[in-house]
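Comment thread on ticket #2218

A.B. wrote:
> Attaching the input chain for the structure job we discussed in standup.
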Amino acid sequence: MEIGSIGEFLAATEEQPLRVILSNPVKKDAEYRRFVYMKKKDGYQREAYTATQVFHKNLTGAELSADMQAAFAAVFRQCNLFYESRTVEIKVSKAGKCLLTQSVSDAPPKGEFSAHNREKKHLIPEGTIVPPLVDMGIFTKEGKVVASMRDKFRQINRFVEIVADAADCLPGGRPIRILDFGCGKSYLTFILYYYFTEIRGDEVNITGLDLKADVIRNCNAAAERYGYTNLHFSVGDIGGFAADEPIDMVVTLHACDTATDFALFHAIRAKASLILSVPCCQHEINREMSTEAMPILGRYGIIKERTAALFTDAIRAELLTACGYKTQVLEFVDLSHTPKNLLLRATRCLQPASVRRRAAAEVTQLLTALSCDQKLYSLLTEEGLISPDSGA
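C.D. wrote:
> Ran it. Output below, let me know if you need it in another format.
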């Protein structure tokens, strides 16, 4: 087989792959680390992974071959194709020689749909009796998904998957301490407790914090009703929060405007191993940024608002990197459900000093260009956790 003939291989195979992974970049400094193609009802979804982000693109079945062909020839040396009952691996050596191997597999590949249109296997599968999901109206008392709540069911499982992918970074040998800033009605807080205790079998202590006393009262009553003995809720302000014990994981979902920055600040200061944040209502930069150098960004209100929101999340992601975290920006839910669909996932690691300095400097450069400040940046610099010149 010659390089670039993967399209011919697909054309000669009547069976469509259910999952494809392109990996092993040709260049060490390649922008993309791997492509993953997942079979969907109406074609495929491509997930393109960089070091810190994931980009999604929908493809028709006819577009799959051309897209893979271009990527395999120019970017990657290895292609793994997963079918219903077999797998195919294609490797390209540095000398340009191709090696194709096939093996029989009894287990179907991971993916949303198989040849028999099987449903995706969720971490919280339908048919499981999960009391919070019953109370939310997502499950019936028999554990069946209510038809009108199927999108919400997928969103919850997506959240659990994002947690599961990074949960191994959390410490072992003792209860995991989790803090949920701005927990609200705490739907996902209850699911977190269920995931860690019932699925992973971990011992956890989770605290939800919110300003609304009546909401906190209802959440504590629900936790007691479910028998979730190590799940507690308190009335409190994110800005004035002070921890009296170590925090391993911080969650902040849809905390409005700079409340997200205060939550991230406390998480960084506590050296939390894992941070999950879905920002909301990023007004600060939208209100303060100068568009004099780029007037087109300020001409239309909706454009300025969305640009400011993206700037804000990019700054937060880079500040987490500057403080020693491996940071990813992921799609939490589909845009058709909510425009607030970005999730920051940060795991504490031994980030090289050069990477931390670069991240801090780039944030400083952007804020200078916008002629404005940003709350998390201010909090971290005032605390001495980062320096615009030398990094964290």
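A.B. wrote:
> Thanks. Noting for the ticket: Residues 111-118 have pLDDT under 50 and may be disordered.
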